[in-house]
Amino acid sequence: MAVGKILVVKKKNKLIQLGDVCDKGFFILDGGFISRVYNPQTKKSRTQNFFLDDFNPFMSCEDSYFTGEKTNTDLLAIKDSLVIQFTKNDLECVCTANQDLANFFNNYIIVNALKQESALRKMINAFSKEELYNYLIDNCNPVIKNIPSKYIAEFIGISAEWLSKTKSKI
Question: What is the pLDDT at residue 62?
Fold first, then answer.
């Protein structure tokens, strides 16, 4: 059974768009993406996560992947990227046929994604803006090196100018 499809995604292109049903998972081989969640009240999107080949390399739109509903998120390439796309159905079939792959997917991909997402949510709620930025510097160096500052600022909930001033203090 052939599963997976190699995709080349150019910088600034969306792999998944707001309103799509996302029944796919993606492994990043090279490049990077941000996920942005849409707020219907403000009619604006905000960066909620970072995906790079060397940091958090599996991505999907969880709100849609697990429910089959339209996503409130988009996945935006922040640099030219190379990904392997798997449909949810293909992943489930392969995992059913291969227990080692199923264990890897469940114990590494899903559990680590949940841990990372939970840790980020806790930090966003508990840390000051400066503490959150310092955490990213200390613990998420690939993000600091590869993600444009405007998306880091958006993630933290600060202006790009404030981030620039914070950087100059460090």
Answer: 85
Euclidean distance between CA atoms 50 and 70, whole angstroms: 21
The residue ranges of every structural domain in the chain are: 5-169
CB pairs under 8 A, 24+ apart, for 43-49? 45/18, 45/74, 46/154, 46/155, 46/157, 47/151, 47/152, 47/154, 47/155, 48/73, 48/155, 49/117, 49/120, 49/155
Mean pLDDT for 90-119 is 74
SS3 164: helix
Q: Name the β-bridge partners of 8.
A: 82
Cβ-contact 63, 72 below 8 angstroms: yes
CATH architecture under which domain 5-169 falls? Sandwich (2.60)
Instruction: Give me the percent of the chain exceeding a pLDDT of 90.
Output: 50
